[in-house]
Fold this protein.
Amino acid sequence: MLILKWKRSIAVDKASCYSAQNMKIADMLGLKEKFSMNMNEHFSKTLDGIEKVAVAVSGGPDSLALMNLLHGWVIQQKKYLHVLTVDHNLRPESGDEAQKVADIVSAYDGATHKTLVWDHKGELESRVQETAREVRYELISAYIKEQNIQHLFLGHHMDDQAETFLFRLAKGSGLKGLSSMSEIQPMDNGIILCRPLLNVSKAELIEYCHKFNLEYCKDPTNDLDKYARVRLRKSMEILEQEGLSAKRLAKTAQRLDRAERALDKVAAKALKVAIKDRKTGCIEMEFAAIKKEPEEIAFRIIQKAMEQLYDDNSSYGPRMEKVEALFYDLMKPEPFRKRTLGGIIFERKDNQGQKTIVLYHEQ
């Protein structure tokens, strides 16, 4: 399953949160019917006129079930499916697992399989999983760009959504992080991630594989307690006994996503009002326009201004805690001392009662 490092992206799917009615309907449907409903609701317009799509398949039950379901949909829609498996060369059996996926796809009409091999020459000492995720993203991105494919389907499901929520909660993420994953997520490099299984449980996917004789592989690293996600996955068994099920956590993430998108839209409008001057590598904003906004919106104005400068400079932002500390200092009535954070210089000009906040790139 493909897991991507976070990049600044904006989910454009306006219907990313299921209505209560649709959630109840989905609960009563079989997986094929639920998948069809999800595709019609979230992806039909996005994929209208698109001739080919890609799907990342590791050989596990999640991605195998998605591949099978997606192939049926692709044939119906007269599109073509590219199935991509990354062989990380981290386990002796990884090559055989990739071949098993290729063998399944060989019986599919309107589909092709490609194994992408990571040749790390055994020179790995630390951050193995993190590096593997980054390389997986790079290999798949390079292939689909070469094939002029824009849409990449991923097998992230309800349990993944809940796990991601807990992982980010443990890291102290804000509302954006806790909103977790969206059905449709455009990335900065032009690739659009598609996740049609976010209202489907892991158990449903395993049951589907058994029902249709899809022989899946089991990654032994999924049981190793040295990885944080494995520990969180096991903790969910305890949380579920208290009523905090994967479904409930995933629903909470959807509601937070709804709130996040609303606040983001308000903050974007407030930023436009606040900007006094905008030049390449520099943004000057009216202090009073920012100060009058609710604290959350005021903070997001500063965040968005930083993001615009990072887009100019293709960089990544600092941790939220540092941005918050600087924001509170900016809003204080006391004089603000010019400082640098994440390669951006922050300055507050207090001239004859007319205060402005200026952000510009460090030279």
Remarks:
- Residues 1-21 have pLDDT under 50 and may be disordered.
- Residues 90 and 122 are 8 Å apart (CA to CA).
- The first strand starts at residue 52 and ends at 56.
